[in-house]
Amino acid sequence: MKTTIALITALLSLLPSTQSAGQPSNNSPFTLIAAHSGSAIHLQSIEASSEHFFIGTRPSTYCPVPPLNQSDCPPGTSTAINVYADGSASLDVEVPGGQQIYISPTGALSYTPPHSHLIPAGSALGTFTHTTNNNPNSNLGHLTFTGLGATGFVACPHHNGTAPWQVFADVQGGDWGRCTGFDALSSEFTGGLGAWEYD
Q1: What is the per-residue pLDDT across 51-78, written as a single tens digit (0 to 9) for each?
Q2: 3-state helix, strand, coil in the chain (%, to 5)
Q3: Is beta strand 153-156 parallel, antiparallel or unpaired with respect to 45-49?
Q4: How far apart are CA 7 and CA 101, in angstroms?
């Protein structure tokens, strides 16, 4: 069964990929780190895993080998993101159809699974903003989200109070008392595509 899925995926890769309904902005793909001085999450990377985003874990990726050769797979070691002029965002992937990023009604920073555009009702897709730094001595930028009454991002610890921390937008009505607010700083991703797909 997995071989059949991999073969279909490889054949679909010959079709044009549409990562998002939006038009690309002038920004290049980027990775994210959390900035909150003095906290356990400070300057840790933000990674995609299990259709959500976490701090303190590695990205979860997949590439269909075979039929593809391992050398044809993107590295899959970082989470690369695109933001578009209409405020939508997607993961920087090769899988046909792309993987769209959204904020769920609970505030969870989330993404669609491969080969699916199913997004929970009440989610927000179109209020991401990525700004880049014009300082020639720094390539850091900033990702923000302003939908669903949110003012920023927070990292909420695992049930035992430690890593990994799940990333949320602080949407209205959420209980963020045990979470840590942070700035989502971006750095240009220059490694081609981030992954074939993120699991």
Answers
A1: 999 999 999 999 999 999 999 999 999 9
A2: 10, 35, 60
A3: unpaired
A4: 26
